[in-house]
Design the sequence.
């Protein structure tokens, strides 16, 4: 059986993660037990998950043209992800994630000024050729114009488009509309459809275009709908340290299961297990996800 090839589109960012006893308050200092700089949650973490699970992966997008961007690009390349279609520009998108016994806090820093429009700075023949060679196209909600253009290419070639929406930003509605499958957090689903119930939010998101919608709900697991079938998957019990990036790992786990031709309910279970495993270490990049570890969690429910 041929190894699946997946192409992802999005912005490559950086996260600086800290582990401490307590979160700092204004005017105070706190001791840090661990400090870790790596690739931020997003399409790269999704592709990293897929690479670990045995797939071939390529990244089309942007990264910062600075030392942090160079670090992130080097990590992605060492992780086995192709980067020939990665464009360096400007300042890195950066997240500071603080994890402590009394909670967590995250600050996101994006470049000042208008958002960089990758579609105006890219030769599309190579990018579209890469998309046409893929088994699936993955989007993370960033670079919406570029993502939508390449999604049109994928759909014209009957290549499924699977999107993980981590933030509500300009252009997100267009990405949902061109996606076959949409994965969104409960927070994002609530912002896009503030009717209260997850099933209502899923119905509203499906009305925007996708044939399948999955909403992740942290410690409560995930709820998904494919056609008329509604699936609920409780979260797996693990010794969780940091949930940052779990949604991106879920995205990768679901895509890997889908391309293995597993039933929809099993795809949701595999993705939920992968997301749980990713919460056992600090940061999003060094995901503790393997096929063996996923299978071990799944057997706990068989």
Sequence:
């Amino acid at each position: 059986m041929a190894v699946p090839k997946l192409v992802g589109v999005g912005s490559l960012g950086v996260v600086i993660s800290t582990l401490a006893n307590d979160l700092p308050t204004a005017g105070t200092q706190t001791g840090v037990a661990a400090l870790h700089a790596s690739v931020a949650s997003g399409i790269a973490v999704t592709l990293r998950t897929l690479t670990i699970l045995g797939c071939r992966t390529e990244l089309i997008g942007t990264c910062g043209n600075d030392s942090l961007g160079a670090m992130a690009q080097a990590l992605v390349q060492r992780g086995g992800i192709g980067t020939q279609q990665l464009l360096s520009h400007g300042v890195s998108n950066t997240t500071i994630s603080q994890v402590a016994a009394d909670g967590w806090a995250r600050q996101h820093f994006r470049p000042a000024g208008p958002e960089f429009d990758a579609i105006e700075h890219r030769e599309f023949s190579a990018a579209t050729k890469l998309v046409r060679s893929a088994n699936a196209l993955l989007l993370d909600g960033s670079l919406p114009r570029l993502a939508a253009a390449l999604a049109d290419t994928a759909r014209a070639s009957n290549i499924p488009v699977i999107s993980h929406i981590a933030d509500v930003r300009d252009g997100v509605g267009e990405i949902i509309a061109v996606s076959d499958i949409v994965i969104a957090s409960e927070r994002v689903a609530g912002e896009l459809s503030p009717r209260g119930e997850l099933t209502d939010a899923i119905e509203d998101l499906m009305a925007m275009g996708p044939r399948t919608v999955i909403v992740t709900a942290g410690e409560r697991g995930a709820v998904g709908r494919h056609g008329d079938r509604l699936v609920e998957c409780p979260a797996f019990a693990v010794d969780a340290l940091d949930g940052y990036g779990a949604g991106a790992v879920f995205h990768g786990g679901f895509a890997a299961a889908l391309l293995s031709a597993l039933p929809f309910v099993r795809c949701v279970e595999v993705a939920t297990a992968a997301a749980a495993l990713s919460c056992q270490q600090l940061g999003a990049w060094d995901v503790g996800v393997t096929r063996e570890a996923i299978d071990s969690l799944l057997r706990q429910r068989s």
Q: What stands out?
A: The chain has a mean pLDDT of 91. The chain has one domain: 5-22+33-299. Residues 5-22+33-299 form a domain with the UDP-N-acetylmuramoyl-L-alanine:D-glutamate ligase fold (CATH 3.40.1190.20).
